[in-house]
């Protein structure tokens, strides 16, 4: 392509200096250069201006993922997911797009190689620790491996499976399915599920709250109450966007005591 043709191509001011047919390539470059928000805008523009291009569904999906995961722009990502689902009904990205439409923010991310370390709140992990990592993910399913320590002694190992069904995020352990979260996770949302084989009621008691644990302070968290049928006390679990569970406490009438909290977390390269 010669210089004269290049200069005649339109420029979209403020987003990316690229021609209509080159938004995709420009988006890729911007991602590599560490400018993901501008890259997302370019991916979206590419799909809008080239709707019949085979790369258009993937470009929309990538734009929505950047908006939601990297910047927490759920309103913006949802509109892009809606466009993807409406205009490309047969795309193999449909299941992931449906999830992205409702699960933003994601309060229990198991679709990438995250690892968490939890410790007892009283001693900061000196008495008890849990090491959890996402061991496998993909095709709508994932599982985590947990190692539980008392002091420095390994006392148990656990394997938990996770999947989505409609808007329910399900944990499977020892043959029992538990709906640990239902989306959109808004204050007042309630559901009934089995927990360890017993009937339990779950309620999102608070949303948009700040929670401070040893791993740091987290904003826009949700507080989920889990009460087993017939018991006077209950459990609170606090979840942070795109991080996961950060705090577990035991509560009852007039009290709430911290039990375990997040000490460290990271995204690994292992699978």
What does this 3D model show about the protein?
This protein is of the alpha+beta class. It folds into 2 domains: 3-102, Serine Threonine Protein Phosphatase 5, Tetratricopeptide repeat; 114-267, YmcC-like fold. The chain has 6 helices and 12 strands. The chain has helices spanning 3-8, 23-32, 36-49, 56-70, 74-87, 94-102, and strands spanning 114-120, 128-138, 141-150, 153-165, 168-173, 176-182, 190-195, 198-213, 216-228, 234-240, 244-252, 255-267. Helix 2 packs antiparallel against helix 3, helix 4 packs antiparallel against helix 5 and helix 5 (74-87) runs antiparallel to helix 6. The protein starts with a helix and ends with a strand. The model is unreliable at 1-18 (pLDDT under 50).
Low-confidence stretches: 1-18
Order of helices and strands, N to C?
HHHHHHEEEEEEEEEEEE
The helix tally amounts to: 6
What CATH calls the topology of the largest domain is YmcC-like fold
Shape summary: elongated
List keywords for this structure.
disordered N terminus; Serine Threonine Protein Phosphatase 5, Tetratricopeptide repeat; YmcC-like fold; 6 helices; 271 residues; alpha+beta; single chain
How does the SSE layout of this entry go?
Layout: H1 3-8, H2 23-32, H3 36-49, H4 56-70, H5 74-87, H6 94-102, E1 114-120, E2 128-138, E3 141-150, E4 153-165, E5 168-173, E6 176-182, E7 190-195, E8 198-213, E9 216-228, E10 234-240, E11 244-252, E12 255-267
Helix pairs in contact: 2-3, 3-4, 4-5, 5-6
């Amino acid at each position: 392509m010669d210089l004269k043709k290049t200069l005649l191509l339109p420029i979209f001011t403020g987003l990316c200096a690229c021609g209509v047919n080159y938004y995709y390539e420009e988006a890729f470059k911007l991602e590599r250069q560490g400018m993901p928000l501008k890259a997302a805008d370019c991916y979206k523009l590419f799909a809008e201006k080239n709707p019949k291009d085979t790369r258009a569904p993937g470009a929309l999906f990538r734009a929505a993922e950047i908006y939601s995961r990297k910047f927490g722009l759920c309103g913006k990502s949802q509109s892009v997911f809606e466009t993807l689902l409406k205009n490309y009904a047969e795309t193999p990205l449909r299941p992931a797009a449906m999830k992205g439409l409702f699960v933003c923010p994601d309060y229990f991310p198991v679709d990438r190689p995250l690892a968490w370390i939890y410790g007892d709140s009283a001693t900061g992990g000196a008495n008890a620790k849990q090491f959890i990592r996402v061991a496998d993910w993909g095709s709508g399913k994932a599982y985590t491996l947990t190692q539980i320590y008392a002091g420095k002694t390994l006392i148990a190992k656990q394997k938990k499976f996770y999947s989505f069904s409609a808007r329910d995020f399900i944990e499977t352990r020892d043959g029992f399915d538990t709906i640990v979260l239902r989306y959109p996770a808004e204050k007042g949302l309630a559901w009934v599920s089995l927990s360890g084989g017993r009937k339990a009621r779950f309620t999102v008691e608070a949303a948009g709250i700040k929670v401070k644990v040893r791993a740091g302070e987290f904003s826009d968290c949700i507080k989920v109450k889990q009460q087993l049928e017939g018991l006077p006390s209950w459990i609170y679990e606090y979840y942070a966007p795109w991080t996961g569970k950060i705090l577990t406490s035991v509560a009852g009438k007039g009290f709430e005591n911290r039990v375990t909290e997040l000490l460290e977390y990271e995204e690994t390269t292992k699978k």
